[in-house]
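Our preliminary data section would be incomplete without showing what the modeling component actually yields. Below, a chain of 251 amino acids is followed by its predicted structure, encoded as tokens that our downstream tools consume directly.
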Amino acid sequence: MPARVYAVANQKGGVGKTTTAVNVGACLAEAGERVLLIDLDPQANASSGLGVRANGSSTHDLLDGVPLSALAHPTSFPNLDLVPAKHDLAAAAVELAARNGGESYLAEALDEGLDPYSFVFLDCPPSFGPLTVNALAAASRAIVPVQAEYYALEGLSQLLGTINHVKAHLNPHLAVAGVLLTMADGRTRLSAEVEAELRRHFGELVFTTTVPRSVRLAEAPSHGLPAIAYDRRSAGAEAYWKVAMELVERS
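Predicted structure:
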């Protein structure tokens, strides 16, 4: 079965994109799947969240024609490989915008080298820039993390419009795997109202599982660990296990 490539995307920052990419990937890897995480954010948070600092090759090289097989390296977690990012990826975004056909460089780079993997996650930066467009052009599905706040609904409509635009012009195979509600606080009326509104507007497109606010989930990246390695019994780790299993069912 060919690798399933997921772009984890939202133009808003701080909604849990990197947390989702790292933790869903780690859960699937622990379940025995071969997983590749490609860090497309110049902030490199997905890389540091797995305890990796890119000193040599990075996703910039992938977009510059270096084969994926030369760039994907094992992490300290079995079955989970990573192409890390460095801050120079910001320059790559400028270069892509200036290149003819720059929207499809990542898709071309991923034409080969995915055979060992069952799941590939593309962690996108918080913007609609060239890196996110490249990720959507290369992916078969998009996962959209949405924070439990009212402004999320406006941003979500905009993002879904962008996904439809990429599907129409660059990637006819692109679809939305699901909308994931993150940072939900079950003690507040706001979280409940936002969740109800999301489910009313988008129905089954919304993951059944919601990811709660969790101190342990927020602490884990500073230790270079996914939540299941940092505190397996935490509410955040348990939620991402459920998200990972739900994603398998949806695929």
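The domain at 4-250 is CATH 3.40.50.300 (Rossmann fold). The CA atoms of residues 74 and 110 lie 18 Å apart. Preliminary results of this kind motivate Aim 1 of the renewal.
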